[in-house]
């Protein structure tokens, strides 16, 4: 009963827009805010990245990750890195840093392991969504990559809260679904996630695939089903991919291309 009370309080806070973010994410949030401005200038972005050592290091690392460095030519400066990845993917990186910080502050070894598993799942889903959008669902690949990175933001938040409230997430399958949706919606709002991306993410829970697969939600559903690392959170159901990817050669190509991207992206965005 006490656990349900604690969870109810977290949900109430989310519904009121009172989710608390770690102070360590401020630099990434400031960068996101600047990048969301249509009049944002390249020099202003570079200054903000250079002003935070972790942001600078991660920007260069991301630019050299396989997903953005097909030529194999490394960049060694923030300016070159920003030019290579572009504002949209820099926005994705900033969002990833925010998401990762919730897992980084967890002290309980069991919950920390779950957060690490959730991050590996996230990296695979993002990399798979990037390839699936390009090859299967006619979805903008960069948008799919971004959606994959932030689609479990609510899960990371709940894991961080469980670190302060032991047993919070024990056996939650029967009563957590609607609450997770509320928390996910508020996380999308706090992170300034564009509405089409937010809607696709919030609608994932309980969704089914209807042929032909199209759009961002279907892209994420397929990516989650194909991800070799499952989410550690309860209620993770994988839709059947029968009749969706009948071409084995295409499936193998999707898995092959995404595997290297997931590994390099996970390392580049690790904070």
TrEMBL record:
Question: Where does the HDOD domain start and stop, copy by copy?
Answer: 21-207
* Gene3D superfamilies assigned to the protein according to its UniProt record, in alphabetical order: Hypothetical protein af1432
Pfam families given in the database record: HDOD (PF08668)
Task: Provide the coiled-coil residue spans.
Answer: none
Q: What is this protein called?
A: HDOD domain-containing protein
Q: Which organism is it from?
A: Duganella callida
Q: Species lineage, top-down?
A: Bacteria, Pseudomonadati, Pseudomonadota, Betaproteobacteria, Burkholderiales
